[in-house]
Structures are given as structure tokens and as C-alpha cells.
Amino acid sequence: MKIAVAGTGYVGLSNAVVLSQHHDVVALDIDESKVAMLNERRSPIVDPELEDYLAHNNLRLRATTDPAEAYAGADVVVIATPTDYDTETNFFDTSSVEKVLVDVLSHSPGATVVIKSTIPVGFTQRLREEHPGATVLFSPEFLREGRALHDNLHPSRIIVGDTGEVGQMFADLLLEGAITKDVPVLLTGSTEAEAIKLFANTYLAMRVAYFNELDTYAATRGLDTRQVIEGVGLDPRIGDHYNNPSFGYGGYCLPKDTRQLLANYGDVPQTLITAIVDANTTRMDFIASDIHERQPRTVGIYRLIMKAGSDNFRASSIQGVMSRLQARGTEIVIYEPALTEDTFQGARVVRDLDEFAEQADLIIANRLDDSARAFGDKLYTRDLYGRD
């Protein structure tokens, strides 16, 4: 079977690698440097297992920037292009997905098109109405940045938004490439699959926001956050997981998915979804105020990334804190090895860790590692457990 994958981010590349263990896969990307790296069997993103699989496994995978080369003769096309949240329309920008679909239908009209990009509820149904005869379905992904391939090889569940033979076929493809075979498989309506994705991520955001607000209360009232969290987590209905305080939920998925779900509600009565979105702003406001009250002249930002093991700092909560501090007139200096420029959003970038530590009166870190712990009394963090 020939499979094309449009987009080589975490979602697209991990799916391409899994599927290319048993099928001929062509990965398409507009970035020529990414394509060159993949054809040299090097990963363009930080993910240890992806790097290992590309370097050492016999994968039937190649990459191209040419849509015709990727789509011609394809039996299945997986769309994994970005769908950033548009603050003007309050909806995902799905233009890249729609463009890929048009290209696929012109080169391989009989292909099954599976959308892996996160999309609004009802989007697939609209595409089907606009393109009669096209086979389009949605299959949500549940991957962690930095562990994307691992989560495809050992999926917690496989969900495909089609209850017929086509849905089962794609579920079987994913299961075929997985190492863990005892995986729950759920075939649903396509709109239900879209809702599952947004509600799942919004629940995770709610849990992050809950423990962050617990931490805000404890910090304000002089309580031991760790003791309160551990006591709450002893209730088996709550559990001792996904409870580590942070500067706020961030990264590529949770901020935009919560806003999209809120937009999808429209005139449907709700208060909780709005609160989840607002809680993140409130948390970053609190963190910035708590730092500002310590009256540092220069605040060091130790890493912009959202979580350990990732090189992605898009929409990271520490950037939200940084912008709030800058608005108050605080000088900012950044240590972030992933940056190549000398400034970032008006702040200086320092590449030497010792020089960075000397220049900052206070250093903030959303997540701890050994280097951050070495800052001693200069360090400000809400990370209690050293995990995401």
C-alpha cells in the first residue's frame, strides 16, 4: 500500500515512521531542510525514539516537497498539517488541511484521506458536503511532544471517526505498526471523534488548571502545596498523577484546543469551559505578580520549552509570564539552546549558562532539571516533582 503523509511535525513524522514499517510512505513537507534531513535518516525534531528508528530501522520511507510525487497513486493520505488558532475568527485556521485535500483529490481522487490535524467539531462533515464522493475521515492523535513515536508504538487507544470498513482499515494500519497490540479501538462518527479530541484535551487542561489554582491558594495562604496535593491525590477517584504545578498549561495543543472547544459551544449553555480558558490567564497573572513582588532588576528565563525532552516552545506558559514581566518594565535575559538569534521578543539571549546565571537576580524555570537546581537561592519555580 502507498501512503502519503502531509506534514512532518510530531504527529505527521511519528505516523509516517510507524506506517513505513510495513508500507511505502512518502512524507510531504514545504520545508526543504526537513525533507533533506529525513532522506538522510535524521530527525528534524527532538524525539529520541524517532531519531533511533530513522537511523537504525529498515523503514520504507522517503520525503519530498512535491505534492504530485507524494499523492499520485496513494491509497491513503494522512493530513498532519498545522491548524493554529486564529484569534480573529476564534476558530482553528484549517486552510492548510483544506489545501491538502484539494491537492489530493486532483492527484489521487480515490484515496482515503485521514485528517490527523486537530480540527473544529463538524469540520469533516463540511468537507464531505463540499467534496461529494471524497472519502474523508478524522482520527484524533494523543501524542506527547518528545514522546510522539513512543505513543504511536504504544498507543493508549486508537480512535477513528468512521464506523465502516474504511475506519476499520485505518485502525488496523495503526495497530499493525504498533508494538503494543492490546489496545482499545473505538470507531465512532467523524463528528464524535472531533469532539473526543477537544474534550479530552480540555479535561487535561482543567486538571492542570485545578492543581495550579490549588498551588496559588497554598502559596497565598502560606500552606505546603505538596502536602495538600498528596492528601488530595490519595482519593483513588482523583489519583496521584498529572498534578505537578506549573506556570500554566501551554504547548501546541491545550491552549488552542480549549479555545476551539469554547468557540464550538456557541449558544450551548456552559460555564466550566470558559473557566478553564480563563484560569490559565489568571495563573500566569499570579506568577508574574509573585515574581514582581520580589523586586528583581533582571529576571532570567531558564528555557522557553513547555516540557522536558521537547524543543518546542510555541505557546509555552513561561513566555506568558515573561511578557507580563516585560510589561512591568522588568529586564529579561533568556537561556534557551534552541534559539539561534541573539534576541527573542525584545529580550537578550545568553548562550553561556554561567554568564546567564551571573546576569540574572532571579531565575525562573517552569520545569526543573539538574542545571536549574544548581541556581540555588536565585531559582523561582512552582515545579514540585520534577516531571511534566
Automatic annotation (TrEMBL):
Database matches in Gene3D superfamilies: N-(1-d-carboxylethyl)-l-norvaline Dehydrogenase, domain 2, NAD(P)-binding Rossmann-like Domain
Its EC number(s): 1.1.1.22
Domain UDP-glucose/GDP-mannose dehydrogenase C-terminal: 300-387
Enzyme class (EC, first level): oxidoreductase
InterPro entries: 6-PGluconate_DH-like_C_sf (IPR008927), 6PGD_dom2 (IPR013328), NAD(P)-bd_dom_sf (IPR036291), UDP-Glc/GDP-Man (IPR017476), UDP-Glc/GDP-Man_DH_C (IPR014027), UDP-Glc/GDP-Man_DH_C_sf (IPR036220), UDP-Glc/GDP-Man_DH_dimer (IPR014026), UDP-Glc/GDP-Man_DH_N (IPR001732)
Annotated keywords: NAD, Oxidoreductase
Presence of keyword NAD: yes
Binding site for substrate: 142-145, 197, 242-246, 250, 306-307, 388
Pathway listed: Nucleotide-sugar biosynthesis; UDP-alpha-D-glucuronate biosynthesis; UDP-alpha-D-glucuronate from UDP-alpha-D-glucose: step 1/1
A single MF term (Gene Ontology): UDP-glucose 6-dehydrogenase activity
Active site: 253 (nucleophile)
GO terms, biological process: polysaccharide biosynthetic process; UDP-glucuronate biosynthetic process
Protein's name in the database: UDP-glucose 6-dehydrogenase
Annotated source species: Ornithinimicrobium avium
Upper lineage: Bacteria, Bacillati, Actinomycetota, Actinomycetes, Micrococcales
